[in-house]
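Q: Fold this one first, please.
A: Sequence and structure below.
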Amino acid sequence: METYQQLEREFAEFNGLEPENMVACSSGAAALHLACECLNLTGNVVVPEYTMVACARAVSMTGARPVFIDCGDDLNLDPELLWEHIDSLPVIMGVMAVHIYGRPCNMERINRICRHEFSIPSVIEDLAEAHGIKPHINTDAACWSFYKNKIIAGEEGGAVYFKDKWHAERARKMRCLGFMNPTDYGFKHYLHEPRGFNYRMSNAHAELILKSLHYYHLNLQRRREVEHHYNDLIHPGYRQPTRRAPWVYDIKLDGTAQSNVDKVAKALNDQGMPVRTGFKPMSMQSEYRGHYRHLRAYEASQRIVYLPLDPLLTREQVVGYVGALHEVLGV
């Protein structure tokens, strides 16, 4: 058994899923693209406004059109806005839900809307930032990233799980340039069907990810301890709701002049503190330019900063980080 195949089996078991339906690939972006391709998404697909641009691009790369829905207070796709707007949108063939910063979307409500109220064919979950949260039983494709900053990580890598075994078999061909299975001819044959991509995961990356998977519970315990240190020290006005999968520690600034997210992030990075700003709305991106200033996603993009939640951080380091943050903010 190849190491990447061992990862497929163990990661599926970790999530309580069928191993034969888990497909390892080269990145989280590749996983999203394979999901969209193998589910044959066409027409219009709902994508959250507040997310990583790879989500929208995966839809665009299939030839489908991403349609954006705003976030709720938890930064996730707002199911009530989905329900409110979906009837007035062009025919929707799929919905992508992304669990932002380790907080789960309301998948029960999203699935009820998609399956029972509007008969939308496909639901995709992006769990790149939410390792340990299990996909909904009715999700057609669930995607993960194993990039080096994720909870379960290698240097790079991804995985996609399909509810339907046929889609998983198709994804295995597509990740390997569409090579026909050797069993079809008795050897590797240079007929390529379906059209595929070089999305293979190397055994070297799979080995790193497996090691990280084996330390998941210790990793999670340490992350929760670091999160607790932040909660003890951060000014209460900046705290965000608890994360079920503590990937990063996001805070919401107060919107005053001194809390400009870009200036805050730069000032802290200049002090050696690896801080990032939150996502920018998809409608701000040049390839999807639209109206965005009225969106909650835009308001969040002006106020969200996230701090490192590395399991190796000590309380003393967190004290230093929070002290630097409060100094920059004048708290």
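Q: Good. Now the second chain.
A: Here it is, same layout.
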Amino acid sequence: MQQEFWKDKRVFITGSAGFLGCWLSNNLADAGAKITGLDIEIKQGSNFHNFDLKNKINQLNVDITNYDLLTKTFKEHEPEIVFHLAAQPLVTEANKNPLPTFENNIRGTWNVLESARNSNINGIIVASSDKAYGIPEKLPYDENHKLHGVYPYDVSKSVKDLISQAYHKTFGLPVGITRCGNFFGGGDLYFDRIVPGTIKSFIFNESPIIRSDGKFIRDYIYIKDVVDAYTTLAENINKVKGHAFNFSTEIPLDVLTIVNKIASLMNSNIQPTILNQVKAEIREQHLTSKKAREMLGWQAKYDLDSALKETIEWYKEHFNGK
């Protein structure tokens, strides 16, 4: 992170109290940025409290689907850089209840982009996903792969991504788009995700639940590397505006490998429960970050073992009430 770039910079972060939002807010606040966070929920036990963000940022209760309130907030606070992270983040929830997913991920995005278009911003970083690519024509995905999500969550990300591109191409909005795989790290409180769910299970001497057959392949990227990716893109937005970037460790792993790795690090012999019940999800997805290396000089810094060790320690402290 370029500390001097962020000193006194006026920054908006939608989804500021979420998993990534908390880590990003904390790092930018420590770098001297003046942050306004927009969110509608602060979870008990989240890093919002652990990082003491209530005393570091200006946190506002703003729903991004409320266009009038969002526009008013932009006008009052005049952000220079915007990170649009707010979304319904769960694939399983999208499959159960697609309408709130479309409302938050699609309507919320055009509201943020339109508010930004009518403001004097220097850059807006929009969180897309590897899910935006849909069923792979080839792997690893590169940024030229078509965006053709099939299932509800994937479609919401494809549309979000395309709307963001349209705002750059039509209005010149200085947009940068991130496409990452699965985040993990301390502070993710959605325990149906494989990393936090597995760690929690082992802490309580329970069998971790695998919804699939254990052989689905994904990218897994540590939250600190994700924060570095987002800030690096923002710092370079003038020369790469309009571009989308994959951010990945480029080491695809199946679910059983992740579970077994966590078991080894936690000295657990408990075997997972394999449900093999996954529907409406793509079997194999992973990314190349060649473009990010060449244009941004970015690459992941954390290896899987060290990242998982830090993550495990966070959850041990979390469940010990610290």
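Q: Anything worth noting on the second one?
A: The mean pLDDT is 97.
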